[in-house]
């Protein structure tokens, strides 16, 4: 079973791609019914050489002999609660969620959680580099869902959706009061299913019915932005990413690459083994990439196994508060080994590795089983990676990965700063 690090979603409408984290050597595979019971897992204390800030709330009440008290409360509820038709599955589902909420969680997405069969299928599909949906990249601005870019060949593209079109409702349900993740959940769905969108372009409104289908989504954007200067954006680490990176680097070398901008902004994670192999491409043989430690405290160090594919090429790496998990492993390795200069904002600070464990009723438990540390032993959880040069994005709305480097060079202050830095190096 592979382990993975993930945080957030890839904002491709109709599928929340579990973004960039890290899955390890083998790979497998809310109010659910869970048939397999077990004692609550307590996350092990971090290695003493580094203090690891916890994202769990230490101010929450802690009841002495809580297991006994839980059973006592359950019995009293069953005997005396005013409504007799108590749904025990609902009660136990809430108890399971309560257990997991006391473990490591992040503000926007749950790290430790339970996954339905549908969610597991969507996760596996995303890790294989495809999605099932209508194929439009979206953003939310002042409560309005806006199309950033339709993916060529997708249902959204074929239906004529254009950048800046507004999606007001899905199957009659308004998106106005929903956050971006919930809006994506409404739009995504199995291949072959249909949905009806209420759309707006300028002052025109219309409804359009689309049929979802599987779409291959590239995780890498590559481009030549100046003579000898190339751009490589990575949006997640899935099974297709390494091949896309290798193809891009080969093209860059054939074009006379002299400098490289690596964009890891808004990359929330993916497969651990893929993140390690990508890091391999940018580090000399034998250099440390990351160390991982589980509850037993044993340290597992991963080092570069290949020659640096871009040896001697100056690199600038862009990071931000949405760079997490696998992106933090890559950025941290490049920084700790002095291989690149990091620009932008402090990263998310995910810092844990998850494992998916199947339960007897086809649901699954996604659980943090270890933490990862930068090559110098620095803890990443909650603290994140601090850039060498802090560069604010300001109010710029341009997303260079989706909007393209040409637009980024005009409206992306972080990209422009990276280019300026590289141009100072001869």
Q: CATH H-level name of the domain at 220-353 and 369-424... which superfamily? A: 2-enoyl-CoA Hydratase, Chain A, domain 1
For the secondary structure, the number of strands is 23
Architecture of the domain at 220-353 and 369-424, CATH level 2? Alpha-Beta Complex
How many DSSP H or I helices? 11
Shape: globular
Question: What is the CATH class designation of the domain at 220-353 and 369-424?
Answer: Alpha Beta
Question: Which class do the helix and strand fractions yield?
Answer: alpha+beta
Strand content: 25-35%
Supply Rg. Answer: 23 Å
What share of the residues lie within helices? 25-40%
Pick out the low-confidence regions: 8-54
Largest sheet: number of strands, sense, barrel closure: 6 strands, antiparallel
CATH topology-level fold name of the domain at 220-353 and 369-424: 2-enoyl-CoA Hydratase, Chain A, domain 1
Q: How far is it from the N-terminal to the C-terminal residue, by CA? A: 46 Å
Give the helix/strand layout.
Layout: E1 4-6, E2 9-12, E3 15-18, H1 66-80, H2 88-101, E4 113-115, H3 117-127, E5 130-133, E6 136-141, E7 144-150, H4 155-158, E8 166-170, E9 173-174, H5 180-187, E10 194-201, E11 204-211, E12 213-216, E13 220-226, E14 229-234, H6 241-254, E15 259-263, E16 269-271, H7 272-280, E17 288-294, E18 299-303, E19 315-319, H8 326-336, E20 341-344, E21 352-358, E22 364-373, E23 389-390, H9 400-403, H10 405-411, H11 413-424
Parallel strand pairs: 14-15, 15-19, 19-20, 20-23
Antiparallel strand pairs: 1-16, 2-3, 4-22, 5-12, 6-7, 7-8, 8-9, 8-10, 10-11, 13-14, 17-18, 17-22, 21-22
Helix pairs in contact: 7-8
